[in-house]
Amino acid sequence: MTDHAPRCFLVADVGGTNTRVALSDGAVVRTDTIRRYRNADQVALEPVLKDFVSRLGTGTAPQGACVAIAGPVRDGKGRLTNRDWMIEAQSVAEATGIAEVRVLNDLQAQGYAVDHVAQENLLLVRQGKHAPEGAAKLVVNLGTGFNASPVFSPRGGAFVATSESGHATMPVRTARDMRLNGFVEASHGFAGIDDILSGRGLERVYAFVADESGSDKRADSAAIIAGCASGDDPLAVEAVSYFIRLTAMVIGNLALVHLPFGGIYLVGGLSGAITPFLKQAGFEDAFRDKGRFAGFMDDFSISIVQDDYAALRGMAAYLQNRLGD
Question: Do residues 121 and 324 touch, judged by C-beta distance below 8 A?
């Protein structure tokens, strides 16, 4: 029997700020081919893909392509949430010359990656109980925006469902939470989860904490994290702690909705930024604060994905499962 070389795929991770494009050999991303493009320097995705393809050697012809975008996707089409780019499978095919094209939401790509991330790139936050084979997982993005997608593993390969969880109304547990929602609504018009549990959301939480203390001080998310780390800014310490407790509450809610006995995986830059403060902020208690179901919450493991190329790996795995020989 003759062994066949894995099929070559093109994968592109399109965020609000940057686009990363690479080749993969089947499910294995060729990290030496990764190119990063600054979106502010581009008018659309198609010129980026044309540039990448033009640099390929004459013997390289990708047999499939997948694009993951930071925005909702339907029927092979999607628009970036934070940039006015419309992405369509047909236009990607025309720009690259690749007939087989798939378009995914970026969190879907992260979901398809969870079984392909090296163990050393997973930071365990809390250990759950033993997960049965094929148990559902949950990927939660905490960064420029907030979203969550369940990952199911039936026979034949993983399936990642889409959602726009971040645009649901922010839940309220205490009187303070109600005041925070009112504070955000007064300035933004709607207190969605994404409007509070994100980078700009952290800035709003800081403004709320300052306002409640009689201060009009404001800070960006980087300064807030730095002020919390140094301890020099008491408002930052309180804002980050409150932000973490709110995050734990929402992730706990999502765990009860999706029952991810296979584990919860946090992705996004902000998830890594708040990691050093989780314990002191009371993340564990807030996650388990579910009344008589507090003990049930011990079933769920939580890990932070520390792999910058996870979305690319997820797309490669997705294509290999659907187009690979």
Answer: no
Is the Cα torsion angle 110, 16, 246, 124 positive or negative in sign?
positive
Q: Which long-range contacts (CB under 8 A, 24 or more apart) does 284-293 make?
A: 284/126, 284/248, 285/248, 286/244, 286/245, 286/246, 286/248, 286/249, 286/252, 287/126, 287/248, 287/249, 287/251, 287/252, 287/255, 288/252, 289/173, 289/248, 289/249, 289/252, 290/252, 290/256, 293/256
Q: Which residues pair with 64 in a beta bridge?
A: 9
* Closest to 299 in 3D by CA, of 264, 247, 249: 264
For residue 192, what is the DSSP state?
B
CA-closest candidate to residue 103, choices 193, 41, 95: 95
Burial level of 306, CB count in 10 A (0-12/13-18/19+)? middle
Strand partners, 29: 24
Q: Is the pLDDT of residue 119 over 70?
A: yes
- Per-residue pLDDT band for 2 (boundaries 50, 70, 90) equals very low
pLDDT tens for residues 26-83?
999 999 999 999 999 999 999 999 999 999 987 788 999 999 998 889 999 999 877 8
Is residue 199 within 8 Å of 142, Cβ to Cβ? no
Query: DSSP for 2-44?
Result: PPPPPPEEEEEEE-SSEEEEEEEETTEEEEEEEEEEEGGG-S-
Please give the structure tokens belonging to residue 33: 């081919």
**What residue has token string 């020099």?**
232
Q: What is the per-residue pLDDT across 219-231, written as a single tens digit (0 to 9) for each?
A: 999 999 999 999 9
Q: How confident is the model at residue 325 (pLDDT cuts 50, 70, 90)?
A: low
The DSSP H or E segment spanning 123 is strand 122-126
Dihedral of CA atoms 184, 189, 193, 197 in degrees, nearest 10, equals -40
Do residues 298 and 108 make contact, with C-beta atoms less than 8 angstroms apart? no
Structure tokens at 32: 């030496």
